[in-house]
Every structure is written in C-alpha cells, then in structure tokens.
Amino acid sequence: MHQKNFRKTYYQIRTELFWGMVLCILLLLLMGIHANYRLMKQEPEKLSEDEQQIRMEVTYDDWHSELEDSAQCLLCRENALEEAEPVPGSDTIGLILLNSWTVLNLPLRRGETAGREGGHTGGSGIHYGYTGGITWLSSGDPDRGMAKISLTLPERCQPDEDFIRRNLCQTCLDQVTASLRFWKGAQEDKEAVPLCLLDRQTAKIYSAQDWYLGYFIRDYWIELDFEETEVSIKAYYLPSAA
C-alpha cells in the first residue's frame, strides 16, 4: 500500500500587488454600500413623484360678476362693435389679453388690423406691443391664410379676478371662466394664463390654456405652444373643399 505525500505549496506575491488587490476589494465593497444607500434614500422621492402624477382640474366657476350695468360689459361691447362697424376679415379670430382687455387679431384675411389697443395696425407684416406686462409680437400672411402671435408673460402671471369680475356681465363671465379651466399636478403650483380666443363671427370664447395642443374654430386651425413664460399661438385658414 502506497501513501502519497502531500506538500503545501506557497506562492509569492509582490507586496504592492497584494495590497493593490486588497484596495480594489475594499473599493468595490464601498461602492456597493454607497449604491445601496442611494437607492434606499431615493425611495421616498419616487413616492413623491408618483403623488405628483395625480392630475386635478382647476376651475373658476365660483366667480360672480360685480358689474352693475351689463351694457358696460367689455365682451358685449366688443361684439356689438363688430356688428356695428364690421371691417374686412373681421369674421376671423382674436386673442384677448384678459387683464387689460386688449384684443389682438390673428391677421388671417386681407384687411385685418393687429389689434384694437396698442401696437401698430395693418393687414399683414409684423406688429408688436407691450400691454399689461405682456410683450406680444404678431405676424401674418393673409394671402396664405397664416398668422402667429408670440407672447412673453411676466412671472406669476394669472387672471386678474377683480378686473375681470368688474368688467363682464355674468353671461360673458361664465364663458371666460369656462375657457380658463385647466389640469395640473396635485403638487404643482400653477395658475391659468390670462388669455382666451374669440371667434369674431359667433362671439364665442375658446380656451388658450396649455392642456390644449390644437383645435378647429370653424375653418381655422389653432395651434398652441407653451414653454415657461413663452406662449405661441398659430392659426391657419383651412376652408373645407365642399
């Protein structure tokens, strides 16, 4: 019977290589601990983000008119003026700056002006103005049925409730407040922008809030784009082929 003799074998490792390996192992352990700590720390933030995804509708239906003489209603007077003094192309679309009640035309048809208050007038080209803290730039090509208004709003811009309630009858106020409703995150600090669109032919009010990307008003396609305090509204005249 033969017995095998086993001898222990030793390997020589250079000192700097050995400690280098130890250091790498320690670094890997520390990185794992740090990553796990960050993951645990981020869990509450993820829950908070999920909560912010809850959407809620903001309405202004509780506003009541304080205008004593309905004949002085700004929207009623605007519509009456259109009926009494119609101008070529006045059956198109207007943008109302609610806090100053400035009506800017989207020059889509030949003969329109840029606006009833402020800025320059003319049927086409570029027009500009500064009204109630809002800077606006209007451009259009009536021959092609295209127009655009770009606006820069001040910080924390929101509808002036007192002014609007004092200058609109209840019927018109209901139209305007309906156009101001919008959606936002449950934790989002946000108000409606003090803008709305006016169909000059039907005297109806339409929304200019950021939860709309675009829609038709009769033969006019409206596109809305929002980026922080910048608002861009484009309009195209697209009559049906029928």
Characterization of this structure:
Strand 5 and strand 6 form a beta hairpin. The protein has four helices and twelve strands. The radius of gyration is 32 Å and the shape is elongated. It has a six-stranded antiparallel sheet with strand order 4-5-6-12-11-10, with no helix packed on it. The chain has two domains: 14-53; 57-237, no CATH class. By secondary structure, it is an alpha+beta fold. It starts with 14 loop residues before the first helix and ends in a 5-residue tail after the last strand. The chain has helices spanning 15-52, 74-84, 161-167, 170-180, and strands at residues 55-58, 93-97, 102-105, 125-131, 134-141, 146-152, 182-185, 195-199, 204-207, 214-217, 220-227, 230-237.
> How far is it from the N-terminal to the C-terminal residue, by CA?
110 Å
Question: What are the low-pLDDT stretches, counting only 5+ consecutive residues below 50?
Answer: 41-47, 116-122
Q: What order do the helices and strands follow?
A: HEHEEEEEHHEEEEEE
Total domain modules: 2
**Radius of gyration using CA atoms only:** 32 Å
Characterize the biggest β-sheet. 6 strands, antiparallel
Helix and strand content put the structural class at alpha+beta
Strand order of the largest sheet: 4-5-6-12-11-10
Helix content estimate: 25-40%
Tell me the number of helical segments per DSSP (H or I, 4 or more residues long): 4
Count of individual beta strands: 12
Outline: elongated
Give the overall average pLDDT. Answer: 81
Q: Beta fraction of the residues?
A: 25-35%
